[in-house]
Design brief:
heterodimer, B: mainly alpha, two-stranded antiparallel ribbon, 26 helices, globular
């Protein structure tokens, strides 16, 4: 019996590269670059931006944060200096290397249009791209794929299922490593027949077989990954590295989303060490694994790391922080014009805060995203309003990526 | 009419229940609606599988004692000479090892009950409410007690008054610790005052409010996010439930029965408070209980619960008429739940033959194992399906619980994982069962001609079983 992979390659759709190669005689398959890779990382639970990117230069910072304040760069376990005013949490040394390489743009006091404090509505707005919860049943990243329709850019969700941000009319794949043996090609063919009257299941089956073929070419053997002794983080790093290779492969999906939970630090948040520090160290390593997987495509990549909203300025009564507004976001990748802060700093005093408690938002996250879509993915300007409806007044941020 | 009854029996077992076991369709066929409702009217008995489990209180008490011992051990090291500098890591070392056996025992018991149950509509409701009041085991201490919340607070109360269910859940130590309420202190409480004095003398050593539990009660457990509350209500309600804590902690949190719910007057913010425009005089524990009672009776709560029930059992986007009907049944009966379930079962649209719901992984795994009557003996094998399909028991990762719409579960890779797991299960069963017989026993007249033909043409007995499990009508309900 043929393996599913052979079967797939035998019956595979004509690849984008092949189509272009036939349209442009004399250009070889390998020389054709696809769209630039664009990855969105969603940190669910509301990352504390004032811990991830501490404004140590603000004289009100350490008082407001008390036991969970991150020290100045000169202090032991202090912040990793960015520009003399902002720093990175000490658990983000690899991201700091990207800063020094000019590949990391750090945005602060940023927010989506959502101004309440529900995680689930906040994530919904972050993903649907509108200005209110459930404003749209499709996600803005799926609408990006729609806007790039003529260029055949594929989308990929890292995980078994597709989060809202990538859901919509354009079919997208999803992928996570498996602990079980592959099903054989003959069964897949029979299922294809069984699903012939079922549009949803047949579309999913096609996407799944395509992504699996890609992953087969790029991943270490599934069983090796499943048996990895590295445990949770090690597995995540392997997934990220494989995902990077899938995205970088000649007809790989160029637009991807990755999400991670566990950022809701209401109690015992920790400072340079502790609960949040551990999570950030994991994020740092996973982003770096993605970079390694992308390999030479890294130079053409931009990754947007964001969360649904920020957390309260003041430490709460249980050494944590409650739901807030302004957040920190990262744009990292070889294509990014980095080594820069994007922050119109509102200050931390009670009167400077939003409703007396949260970091006030001075930059709309959609402005950053629109700038990336226009200049990195070459999304036509007129499509940006379909992608972020109601954002007429939100001008794209310029020069997020290199010319 | 006989044909219609047979179809309704299949719908009763698959849409409302956790999937038909062989023989079940014929017991339901006489009166499918009555068969469902009888599952609720029978008097509640604790399933035998739960009798051997340690209680949440015992598990938490052991955990707290171990944590205290560790803290003491750490103190005994000279400053700077701890074997590992990270205090959180030190605290968590061994926690997993200690709590994992309890988790496995709880998850195994839950699965076994679901697989053998002859009243799987009832089990389905247990899962529904457990997910409504979700506690996720990715928070380390919850690994040992998420199942205890379901078994102790939820399971015995799913066919009583919602108020009693709500009060039991919000005072269960698992919920108190999951949403960080045990150390939340009123700024003017006895301990808050003391801390404030120390703060003036020795720098920042504040204790005070944590609003996590209060917010999620309003947003997720009762009113719903559009239920009309403001930030001021969240803050005020958080003050109301200061003192809702757990016995046997450290320092000022030491008193009380270890691992049990305790009301700590010393943490409670004194004075009367306003929540949703209503005043509550200061009466300690009773103040919070009074707010919870009012929340349970609020019309927004009725709508929120009605919407979730309708979405779970009927369709991702249920009709407004159904939601209205359930909300009215809830309000008219002061939150007594059986009439709400009755209204649901008696709703005509709930019996449309065309399935509206795509099974969540747990529903797919239960229904497959029930259809083929497979109950692996080893916990690892028993729980493997939930693991590989991405829905380990009590692990939604957030207090919102698992999402309940098709798009949340029908990703391409998710489908491939279901195929792989089905193949593994079918290989295990091999030719011990005929797929055509199993299709008839599990799906009855819901099995399509196309599926039956495909099973008949399969290359082997086990391939036919895999095709049955992956057929569109088995994937939906």
């Amino acid at each position: 019996m043929r393996s599913r992979r052979e079967f797939l390659w035998a019956s595979a759709n004509i690849s984008l590269g092949a189509v272009l190669a036939s349209a442009l005689p004399g250009v070889s398959f390998g020389a054709l670059p696809g769209a630039r890779p664009f990855v969105v990382v969603i940190l669910r639970g509301a990352l504390d931006g004032l811990a991830a990117v501490p404004p140590f230069g603000d004289s009100d910072y350490s008082d407001a944060r008390g036991p969970i304040a991150i020290g100045r760069p000169a202090a032991p376990h202090g912040a990793l200096d960015l520009d003399g005013f902002f720093g990175l949490h000490p658990s983000l040394p690899l991201l700091h290397e990207r800063w020094r390489a000019g590949e990391l743009l750090v945005a602060h006091a940023v927010a989506s249009p959502y101004r309440e404090r529900s995680h689930f509505d906040g994530q919904n707005v972050l993903e649907n791209g509108g200005d209110r919860p459930s404003g749209s049943s499709s996600g803005w990243l799926n609408r990006v794929l729609g806007a790039l329709a003529g260029r055949n850019v594929d989308g990929l969700a890292l995980g078994q299922n597709v989060p809202l941000i990538l859901r919509g009319p354009v079919p997208v794949g999803s992928w996570a490593p498996s602990r079980l043996p592959e099903a054989d090609a003959e069964l897949i063919a029979r299922l294809r027949d069984l699903y012939s009257d079922d549009a949803t299941l047949s579309a999913r089956l096609d996407e799944a077989t395509r992504m699996e073929a890609l992953a087969d070419g790029e991943a270490p053997a599934d069983s090796a990954m499943a048996n990895s002794k590295n445990g949770g983080l090690g597995r995540l790093k392997e997934i990220a590295e494989t995902a990077g290779r899938m995205i970088a492969s000649p007809d790989g999906p160029r637009v991807a989303v990755f999400d991670a939970t566990g950022w809701d630090t209401h109690a015992g948040e920790g400072a340079a060490e502790g609960q949040l520090a551990g999570r950030l160290a994991g994020l740092d390593q996973v982003l770096d694994a993605l970079r390694r997987g992308l390999d030479s495509e890294w130079s053409r990549t931009a990754i947007l790391v964001c969360t649904e909203f920020g957390r309260t300025v003041q430490v709460n009564g249980t050494r944590g922080t409650d739901h807030g507004t302004g957040m920190a976001a990262f744009v990292v990748g070889g294509a990014v014009r980095g080594g820069r802060m994007l922050a119109d700093w509102p200050g931390l005093r009670e009167k400077q805060r939003y409703e007396g408690r949260d970091l006030r938002a001075t930059t709309d996250l959609r402005a950053l995203a629109k700038g990336l879509l226009r200049d990195h993915l070459a999304v036509p300007e007129r499509a940006l309003l379909d992608i972020f409806p109601g954002s007429d007044a939100v001008a794209p941020v310029r020069d997020v990526v290199r010319a | 009419m006989i044909t219609e009854r047979a179809t309704q029996a299949a719908i009763a077992a698959n849409r409302f229940g956790l999937g038909a076991r062989p023989g079940e369709l014929s017991s339901a066929a006489g009166d499918p609606r009555g068969w469902l409702l009888a599952q609720l009217h029978s008097s509640y008995r604790v399933p035998a599988e739960l009798e051997e489990l340690a209680s949440g209180r015992e598990i938490l008490a052991t955990f707290l004692a171990a944590r205290a011992a560790r803290a003491a051990q750490k103190k005994s090291f000279p400053r700077g000479a701890t074997p590992d500098g990270d205090p959180i890591k030190l605290l968590l070392d061994g926690v997993r090892e200690q709590l994992l056996p309890h988790y496995l025992a709880q998850a195994t018991a839950r699965t076994r009950i679901a697989l053998r149950s002859e009243s799987s509509f009832r089990e389905s409701l247990v899962h529904f409410w457990s997910n409504h009041f979700a506690v996720s085991v990715d928070k380390p201490v919850c690994l040992g007690i998420a199942g205890a919340l379901e078994n102790e607070a939820i399971r015995p109360r799913i066919d009583g008054h919602f108020t009693d269910l709500l009060l039991a859940v919000e005072t269960h130590p698992a919920m108190i610790t999951y949403l960080d309420n045990e150390r939340s202190a009123g700024p003017h409480s006895e301990l808050g005052d003391r801390a404030a004095r120390r703060h003036r003398e020795r720098g920042p050593e504040k204790i005070g409010l944590n609003e996590n539990l209060a917010r999620e009660i309003l947003e997720l457990h009762t009113l719903g996010v559009d239920g009309g509350y403001q930030q001021a209500d969240v803050t005020s309600f958080a003050a109301v439930i200061t003192g809702w804590s757990i016995g046997g902690g450290q320092g000022p949190f030491a008193d009380g029965e270890p691992g049990d719910f305790v009301f700590r007057a010393a943490l409670h913010e004194p004075g009367s408070k306003r929540v949703l425009g209503r005043g509550y005089s200061d009466s300690g524990l009773a103040q919070g209980q009074a707010v919870l009672r009012d929340l349970a009776g609020h019309p927004a709560t009725a709508r929120h619960l009605a919407t979730k029930l309708a979405r779970h059992f009927v369709a991702d986007d249920p009709s407004a008429a159904l939601v209205d009907r359930l909300a009215r049944a809830y309000s008219a009966n002061d939150g007594y739940l059986p009439p709400v379930y009755e209204a649901l079962v008696n709703w005509e649209e709930a019996w449309e033959a065309e399935p509206q719901k795509f099974k969540q992984p747990y529903e797919f795994v239960y229904s497959a194992l029930r259809a083929l009557e497979v109950t692996p003996g080893q916990p690892k094998a028993l729980l493997a399906g939930f693991e590989v399909l991405g829905q380990r028991h009590w692990s939604p990762g957030s207090p919102a619980g698992w999402p309940d719409r098709q798009a949340d579960w029908n990703g391409a890779d998710a489908l491939m994982k279901r195929i792989e797991w089905s193949v593994a299960l079918a290989d295990r069963v091999g030719d011990k069962r005929s797929a055509l017989d199993s299709a008839s026993a599990a799906l009855g007249s819901l099995a399509s001609a196309h599926t039956l033909k495909s099973l008949g043409n399969a290359a082997s007995a086990s391939q036919a079983l895999a095709l049955l499990l992956m057929s569109p009508e088995f994937q939906r309900r």
